[in-house]
Amino acid sequence: MTYFWVQMVHFGIRSMASLITTAKLWIEVEGEKGDFGRFLLLNPYIAKSDLWSEYYSKQVMMSKEVKEAMVLPDKKPLPNLVTQDLVDKIRMR
């Protein structure tokens, strides 16, 4: 579960940076740039507590293996930073 959330937050941070860079998107929350409120506005899925269930079945998440090591999702792959980098390059053209 920890690995999943780290991956999702990392993907959100990377996605947010590309939005700000390529689209010059600045959303200010209470006058503060770079705060967690802005992060959530740009990545609302992070606030979804059952987001993991879109990627992992309950059976996998409750398995012995997942308690001992990192296990990849069984429903769909995690968002891919390599793909995001490609999208960013296309946007910049």
Topology:
Layout: H1 2-23, H2 36-42, H3 58-61, H4 64-68, H5 81-92
Overall number of domains? 1
Shape: globular
Q: DSSP helix count? A: 5
Order of helices and strands: HHHHH
Give the helix/strand class.
Answer: mainly alpha
Distance between the termini: 37 Å
Radius of gyration: 16 Å
Percentage of β-strand residues = under 5%
Biggest sheet details: none
The percent range for helix content is: 40-55%
| Low-confidence regions | 22-30
Q: Provide the residue-averaged pLDDT.
A: 78
How many β-strands, per DSSP? Answer: 0
Comma- or semicolon-separated keywords:
5 helices, globular, 93 residues, mainly alpha
Characterise this structure.
The chain has 93 residues and is mainly α. It has one domain. Helix content is 54%, strand content 0%. It has five helices and no strands. 1% of the residues are buried. About 10% of the residues have low confidence.
What's the short story on this structure?
This protein is mostly helical and 93 residues long. 54% of the residues lie in helices and 0% in strands.
